[in-house]
Amino acid sequence: MALQSLRGTADLLPDELTRWSALEQTARRLAGLYGYRELRTPLIEDAALFLRSVGETTDIVQKEMFRFQDRGGQEIALRPEGTAPVVRAYLQHHLDKIQGVAKLFYAGPMFRAERPQAGRFRQFHQYGAEAIGSASPWMDVEIITLCLDVLRACGVTRTTLWLMSMGCRKDQERSAAQLRERLAPLRAKLCRECQARFDKNVFRTLDCKNPRCHELAWGAMPNGQSPFVLCEECRAHVDTVRLGLRGAGIAFDDTRTFARGLDYYTRTVFEVRAEGLGAQDAVAAGGRYDHLVEEFGGPSVGAVGFAAGVERVLMAQQAAGTALPAPGRGGVYLAVTRAPLVAEGFHFVDALRKAGVPAAMDLDGKSFKAQLREADKSGYRFLAILGEDEVTQRAMTVKDLEQGSQDLVSFDTFVATMAGRLKAAA
Ligand code: ATP
Ligand code: MG
User: Fold this and answer.
1) Secondary structure (3-state) at 332
2) The ligand 1 atom nearest the CA atom of 262
3) Domains of the chain: residue spans and CATH
4) pLDDT tens digits, residue range 40-53?
5) 135 CA distance to ligand 2 centroid (A)?
6) Ligand 1 site: residues with CB under 6 angstroms?
7) In what order do the strands lie in the sheet with 75-78?
8) Predicted structure pTM score
9) pLDDT digits (tens, 9 = 90+) for 144-168
């Protein structure tokens, strides 16, 4: 059998990539509008980066991270997420010293060794934004607003925003102790993994893929009470976030309690779910991580960010029937009636390209009919015909494949005329 791409990975063929690029461009443009500048970090990192941030007891690190040793024996990871690398880069390049708040945008592939299924891949793609150096709840509002603005601009409007506070580190210690106490009598009923991580990280039981653990953990609190207990400052923080969101006209559901699969979160966490996606309906998620920078050896500054899954946003777009329209016809296809005219034709095509006009011609001696077919099939707007008559008249026959009109355009003004017509059509 011919070689195939790995399970859970996908080739993005040109037609599909058009939608991808449009989405990424939209995200990049809106992030720019909010003052976030793009950065790119490597796809491989020291595995320790994720152990120390995402957390050793999380599924992402324990089960989903692609890890290998390089020839020198160093533990390498294919990045499973974008926040830890961005914070590493922020510190490595002293961005903390350049400006107050570093507002950064990224887009690119992430890797997790998950069981491939609808909306779940082993190489998937995210775009995201991080605001590092701010403790303000208004920055949470900004990040959530940006996250939803991009979705809306992509036609994904039927979404639900889940909002919650996990409290500060102190609160989390209290909450963990309380949850541990409540769960202790049921400990033997938890899966082996949850039993193992019970002492180290009891919150992971809230996020366990095993439905029984999930149920026990969430049911451990009386009357559906949240396992996260908040101090006064944390309550005030999330209240301001609510206020800000209401002011921005953003609806949210803060009655849900949900777990995030990464350890670095503090205070605000959120998830955006989209309609029509089935089981994998989380299109974007994020939250505040007020200790990560310090834990990486940097200053004690607050930070907040989000990441969205490109594949899922595109699925939501399709489910909503709002996929961006296919681009209209564009550019010039030059057809020659006889093979020897390729030399002359090539000269014109080259000049068009140099003038910024998309242009193509057949270089393999296809029949004239086949060339016409290709011009139409490939979506060119204009068909320029170069034959003996045209050479004698020193003028090109030009057909507008959209309007159906036809005229003669002098060789001397051909490039400028075509550039002008395409500009007018755009
Ligand atoms: P899920 O609960 O679906 O596993 P997650 O909590 O692991 O998601 P995050 O780490 O918060 O996901 O990543 C943010 C977004 O990235 C998700 O909301 C989702 O859109 C996307 N994403 C995460 N894992 C995958 C994957 N394996 N394939 C495709 N998209 C993914
Ligand atoms: Mg996951």
Assistant:
1) strand
2) 10
3) 14-167+248-320 (3.30.930.10), 168-229 (no CATH), 332-425 (3.40.50.800)
4) 999 999 999 999 99
5) 27
6) 81, 112, 114, 119-121, 124, 126, 261, 280, 282-285, 307, 309, 311-312
7) 44-46, 75-78, 67-69
8) 0.90
9) 999 999 999 999 999 999 999 999 9
